[in-house]
Amino acid sequence: MSVGYDESLNDLDVGSPTPITLAVGWTVGKNTKIRQVLLGNDVSAEFRRIAKNTLEDLKEREPAEWTPDADLSPETFLILDADEVGEAPRLTSDHDGKRFLDALSQAERLEAINPKHLPTGDVSFYALVFGAPDDRTVFIRRSNPRRGLKRGRIYSVLSDTLQTLEEPIFAFDEWFDLVLHRDKVMVLSQTVFAAFFRDQETLAKKIPEWIGQLAEHVPLASSSRDCLTERVSKDSRLKARLEAIVRREHLASVTTETLRTAMEDNELDPSTLLDEDGNLTLTTEDVPQVLYLLNEDLFTGSLTSTGFRADKKAAR
């Protein structure tokens, strides 16, 4: 294993008597509220089994560094530092300013939800929290455990006679989308990771920072900064490309001459995209192709010499 993977995850014991807490969350306006759901022994046993299966699945996969355009295959999982997920999702004011992952890691401190006070909106996720307070592992599933199980339908238990169920019902899945272990987040679903942590408002605030980091290695004319900001702000795919470029840090060793050659090889005109001092001179129309170039997403087919663009990355 590599990429900052914590080998202690391989030895994690989620069986009894390891403490376990279930948290559920839902959206209130633009914020998220989280509450604890108390567990019976038989339900705890089932959750422990599912968490153990998730750990076994992770052991069979290879870790790869998370980037916005990383390709997630059945043979891999993605990993990144927990402090890199950003400020989203924001919690409601009753969580005392805690960040999302911090609140989940302290799930036993959450207020226990009363079944009579279930939210009128949908529960959007649930999480299982294992371990002692100073060594927590959190399994997160972005799914509504009350989906299709609301009032207006008749639920019953089949025994000798049908008995109506009056209490609220939860139904849970057999897998998880994200695992937080100590200071690392392991991603088993890029879609879920993006839904939690990459909302467009959060990403928009990062654009000036990313452009500044890009300019440290590829000098930008002042007008190019404005064009980048304008175009990237309107396109989520271009935001992902810009973030991927600065995260990879591969441009630190790229010279102006190398960049010029790469432009020519990919049928871009360096005489219009670079000034005499080597600064990028972009119009808003130039931004998509140049970002794909800088992220090494443009390539030529080896058999037909046809130009292509890649939208995902997977190491060979």
Radius of gyration: 24 Å
Number of E-type strands: 12
Largest sheet: 8 strands, mixed
Low-confidence segments, given as residue ranges, are none
- Beta-strand proportion: 15-25%
Question: How far is the first residue's CA from the last residue's CA?
Answer: 16 Å
Number of continuous helical runs: 9
Strand order, largest beta sheet:
2-1-5-6-9-10-4-3
Tell me the layout of helices and strands.
Layout: E1 20-28, E2 31-37, H1 41-60, E3 62-65, E4 76-81, H2 100-105, E5 123-130, E6 137-141, E7 156-158, E8 162-164, E9 178-181, E10 184-187, H3 190-197, H4 200-215, H5 222-233, H6 236-248, H7 256-265, H8 270-273, H9 287-294, E11 298-300, E12 307-309
Parallel strand pairs: 3-4
Antiparallel strand pairs: 1-2, 1-5, 4-10, 5-6, 6-9, 7-8, 9-10, 11-12
Protein name: DUF4868 domain-containing protein
Brief digest:
This is DUF4868 domain-containing protein. The chain has 316 residues and is of the alpha+beta class. The chain has helices spanning 41-60, 100-105, 190-197, 200-215, 222-233, 236-248, 256-265, 270-273, 287-294; strands at 20-28, 31-37, 62-65, 76-81, 123-130, 137-141, 156-158, 162-164, 178-181, 184-187, 298-300, 307-309.
